[in-house]
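Q: Please design a sequence for this.
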């Protein structure tokens, strides 16, 4: 009980101080869905840019949000939410209130697999469909265990990058023999999620029937990494690791959505 008294006497945990402000919570909520530019966040939150920029800076200083320069327009910046970091800080905040609130690592949070529903359809897009979107497609199929069916395409397809094949082979997936596809092959198809991984392809993404959820992940092209082959391969490893984390959260959201729909239908 000493630890409880110490936490009661202190200030709220850092995550609660950062996320407890209504506008910062709104910004976090929007960034949890998709990477965004500051102008988009202003429009979504209905606030002036100076105010949004101030609170984004607070979130960046707190380590919850980071920024990447847009590869489509160097004057733009995309803001990204660190979902893993948020989860760790949120768990720590619960434990600081009472030890009984400390969760086992994400245990029991995922609904049971094996739903009778059709798998969610996911389309990953990048410029060349040679690395990022191919890796994402393979990881989504591997990690979802049937909860999602993924495909990928590009606005200007080019041959599959050998380092994409090498990196995914190390993760137990063989990409050799897969072909790059133009996004026009899928424009008439229905998807539940359309995820752009490239700032440039986001600007030319066509409309898809059925109003899929549009998500943007601003991920640099590992094939443009300068330096030795070892440095380039390291960039591909980082890309695969980031995609693995993001796709893991996507799959959890898909499974939770499916579970909620099934509960609603049974009610």
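A: Design:
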């Amino acid at each position: 009980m000493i630890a409880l008294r110490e936490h009661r006497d202190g200030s709220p945990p850092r995550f609660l101080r950062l996320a407890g402000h209504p506008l910062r919570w709104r910004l976090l909520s929007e960034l949890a869905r998709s990477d965004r530019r500051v102008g988009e966040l202003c429009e979504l939150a209905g606030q002036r840019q100076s105010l949004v920029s101030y609170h984004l800076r607070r979130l960046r200083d707190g380590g919850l949000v980071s920024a990447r320069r847009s590869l489509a327009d160097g004057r733009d910046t995309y803001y990204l939410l660190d979902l893993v970091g948020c989860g760790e800080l949120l768990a720590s905040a619960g434990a600081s209130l009472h030890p009984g609130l400390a969760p086992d690592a994400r245990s029991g949070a995922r609904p049971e697999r094996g739903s009778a529903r059709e798998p969610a359809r996911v389309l990953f897009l990048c410029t060349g469909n040679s690395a990022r979107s191919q890796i994402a497609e393979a990881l989504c199929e591997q990690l979802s265990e049937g909860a999602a069916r993924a495909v990928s395409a590009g606005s200007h397809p080019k041959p599959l990058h050998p380092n994409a094949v090498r990196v995914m082979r190390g993760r137990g997936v063989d990409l050799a023999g897969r072909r790059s596809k133009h996004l026009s092959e899928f424009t008439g198809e229905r998807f539940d999620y359309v995820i752009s991984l490239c700032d440039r392809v986001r600007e030319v993404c066509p409309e898809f029937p059925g109003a899929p959820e549009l998500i943007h992940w601003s991920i640099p092209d590992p094939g443009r990494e300068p330096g030795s082959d070892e440095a380039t391969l390291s960039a591909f490893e980082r890309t695969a690791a980031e995609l693995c984390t993001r796709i893991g959260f996507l799959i959890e959201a898909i499974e939770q959505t499916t579970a909620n729909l099934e509960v609603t239908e049974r009610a």
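Q: Thanks. Anything notable?
A: The chain has ten helices and seven strands. The beta strands are 36-37, 65-69, 77-81, 120-126, 148-154, 193-196, 213-216.
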